[in-house]
């Protein structure tokens, strides 16, 4: 009872603080809101929408079931999740936050995952996409494409490590027995694909409309959280609350022999990835090495803004949020540690043209930046047009469906 009263008091005080701060700092709140809105409609919405729509269609047509049967021998021993987790993992890495949570919740609603399997899966399938790491952070903030390599490697290997650790979470659950022969497994995968398609009674037009509306509704929710936390972060800085937290965090940074000047960027990054990464890149008092360590931690923790988006998506299911939150803390520390390990081979050697041992790294870097950076620039340029057009289509579908219901 006492815990419930304290929670009520905390939530009410937070809402009251936000309301008073908005009234006290209207111009600053508007500027922060516009920054969040620009990030959403220029990059987040156009980059995530295709993945969300395609994933809904793949699930409806049974292709996810097909992939799940094929990947069962890999995903079950490694992560103690069904093979469909492989689809969620790949889509989550490719499309970024909070796609992994959306796909996991969707599969849980279809009973393709148990609650514990879903909690394990969501803990390591939410990651930042390569577009954001190389385009926004490496090029946009640090003006150095080379740092994108080390950030990406530390981030994705860290996610893999989190998945391997989280396999020990929850009780032992026996997966369905499968014939070990390859031919039998492929036949079973096609059978699952066929039966799933037959069970889907919606016509293609209805399925496509549902995919579009569901995806846009999720992205509207994501946009709301991005704008809210952008404003909230700015207000905390205006009332000097960020400085108080930074003073407390400076002692923690000293324990890890990190520059205390990075405390403020770290605090900002705990709330919102983009702002924290940008502030870390602008901290002239710290060397690039320490800036990348803090940025890597921020990417792994993914910020309370993204975590609030995930919590909102998971609230529609029985998937608990606490394992995801624990995994994000774990991912932050692992990614920062991996950054220290990979700093010399993936950055120092990359800067030395006379060092022949980095040939593979240079190939990876060139192949990545050759398409990621131009694609990021195109997304930023045409993103608002895509967003407005998509919202127009969504509005048309919504009006037509409402008209059919009223008739």
The N- to C-terminal Cα distance equals: 49 Å
Radius of gyration: 22 Å
**Distinct helical segment count:** 17
* Overall number of domains: 1
Unreliable spans are 176-181, 354-364
Name the overall outline: globular
The amount of helix comes to over 70%
Mean pLDDT reading? 82
| Count of strand segments | 0
What portion of the residues fall into strands of 2 or more residues? Answer: under 5%
What structural class should be given to the helix and strand makeup? mainly alpha
The helix-strand sequence is HHHHHHHHHHHHHHHHH
Note the main sheet: none
Describe, in plain words, how this protein is organized in 3D:
By secondary structure, this protein is an all-alpha fold. It has one domain. It is 82% helix and 0% strand. The chain is built from 17 helices and no strands. It has helices spanning 2-24, 26-61, 63-79, 84-95, 99-109, 115-124, 130-141, 146-166, 182-199, 204-238, 241-255, 263-271, 273-281, 288-301, 303-314, 322-351, 359-406. Helix 5 (99-109) packs antiparallel against helix 6 and helix 8 (146-166) packs antiparallel against helix 16. The chain is globular, with a radius of gyration of 22 Å. 43% of the residues are buried. It holds the Pfam family Gate. Residues 43-140 form the Nucleoside transporter/FeoB GTPase Gate domain. Keywords: Membrane, Transmembrane, Transmembrane helix. This is Sporulation integral membrane protein YlbJ. The chain crosses the membrane at residues 48-71, 78-101, 121-142, 149-169, 216-239, 251-268, 288-313, 325-343, 379-400.
